[in-house]
User: Fold these one by one.
Assistant:
Number 1:
Amino acid sequence: MKHSKNVTLTFDDTSREHAEAFHGKHKGKVFVTTHRMIFLSDDQRDNLLSFAVAFMYMKNLHVEQPIFGSNYISGIAGAHPNG
């Protein structure tokens, strides 16, 4: 398992009516395993305290490690069944 501090989590498409927690930038730490990514917010007042997604429920998954930039994971996160 890999973890990193000082991570910024953002969501591009937050047009859903119940997506207030997904707006803006969220700072915290991320844990990445071979199966999923888990984000934990540093700010306990943040609307989004945690976010987890299994890689098998992501579309267009990209894990990037650019030479002159920060590493990042991007993709479209789908909901877990009954989630």
Note: The chain has a mean pLDDT of 86.
Number 2:
Amino acid sequence: MHTTPESLLRLPEVENIAGMKKSKLYALVKEGQFPAPVRIGPRSVRWKASAVRSWIDGLQAGTGKEDRA
């Protein structure tokens, strides 16, 4: 991920980074297993790059909640 921790990521970027599609990401958000997006407008959301990075780091450390099977 070539971003700063303060970067805001669009859905296609998050899908690419996480390796999941929109429906799976939002299901994980609902279950509290993936960072929730930040609303930046009435019909627009972004994900904090730092939150997505922390989620990935948690998976690599074996502490992530996501079952990737």
Note: Residues 6 and 37 are 13 Å apart (CA to CA).
Number 3:
Amino acid sequence: MRKLSVLVLVALAACGTPQEQCINRETREIRSLQRLLGEVEGNLARGYAWEEYEVPMTRWEVCGHDRITRRDGTVIEKPRMCLEDYTVTRQRQVAIDPAAETRKAEGLRKKIKQLTPQAQAAIAACKTQYPEE
């Protein structure tokens, strides 16, 4: 039942009526905690976490054109190449402490349980303030 109410909250968050916007605004924190809990549970199931890191790279890109006039009068436009820096985001596996992850999951569950009555009251208030026609 709790998972169903969570799915309803997520579904309502994606819509755009005033009531849905109000519910989205009022349940943002609990949805964030649920997302974090899902990540922690995934880490525990896999036995490791994913860490994102950035890698600076360089590539050749066209950055303009040079106009070359030949002796016979023909004009050629030749692309000018420049080295451009960019960043690639990659992921790597990192070790986790299962005991710490379990404590983290329990703390998140406890916080979600604590915030659920407030979220339900806020949803009821949004439905009262913005009744759907």
Note: The helical segments are 2-13, 18-26, 28-46, 98-129.
Number 4:
Amino acid sequence: MSAPATLADFHARLMDEMPDLPRRVAESARYLIDHPDEVVIHSMRDLAGRAGVSPATLVRLAHGMGYENWSDLRDI
């Protein structure tokens, strides 16, 4: 499955897939949905700390959504 191209597509897909995500990945997804403006302001490590997950969890989320890396997810 290809990565969502827009923020709206990303949010819609996350909401659809949320029940099937591992717990920590789902927590990070919920944080990104609830705080989209922070993604462009804070580093991945900072966001992970704010979400209460490890930076690797954000990378797993990015990969699971079809992005090659965190930077690609952040770009949308």
Note: The mean pLDDT is 93.
